[in-house]
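Subject: for your reference before the review

Hello V.,

The reviewers asked for a structural picture of the protein, and I figured it would be easier to keep everything in one thread rather than splitting it across files. Below is the amino acid sequence we used in the manuscript, unchanged from the supplementary table.
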Amino acid sequence: MLENLISLTGLEERLRYRFRQPRLLEAALTHTSWANEQGVEDDYERLEFLGDAILGAVAASWLYDRRPDLDEGELSKLKSYVVSESVLAEHAEHLRLGEYLRLGVGESRSGGREKRSLLADAMEAILGAVYQDGGLEAARGVALQLLESTLGERVEISELRDPKTALQEAAQARGGSLPEYRHVAEEGPDHKKRFHVECWIDGLFLGEGDGSTKKQAEQRAARVALAALEDDSQESDNALQ
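And here is what came back from the structure prediction:
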């Protein structure tokens, strides 16, 4: 029990919020698989519903105030990005949320602590738990920390494109072939795989990436390759001047 309290205290420190009702934080960390195995009612699904609504409202208000240069459509795109599964999962990974999740045996063995969808859901549940524990201002404070860390620097709408799509467009604009993703390595046990991917265009190696899924590895390789193409274009433009 003491070990669990220490662990939750560490999570609270990273959240910069101290729960007055620790049971709410415990519920936010409880997957249905664990609740079913233990015969308890509290899991994170209802808190996730609440946290999703709170995050959406806070993000909309924050973006409206922060980005007066954007119209309604652009604000919608940016809001979709900051509350997306991939971004929420990154926050959860930064908080080391997977370490604290209460998962059933099967879910744990299948790599549930690293599943991005599960991490994103738990992140929303924590926001719901903060709201239930401390009210709207407390939840807003935690949500704003996440938003500020996501958009600490000015982000343009064009930067939010899927990297694989952006790379394909850039390659075609240069008259090149479509990018080729080569899966060069796969490491680790079944529940904790790491995939390594290289990105090639017209026989040229442009970048590599790794991730817990093939899709994630391809996205990261595409992002590196896109940066390489943009650097090459910049050097070419400079040489012509």
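For the response letter, the relevant points are probably these. Confidence is low (pLDDT under 50) at residues 1-6, 237-241. The first strand starts at residue 180 and ends at 187.

Happy to draft the paragraph if you're swamped.

O.
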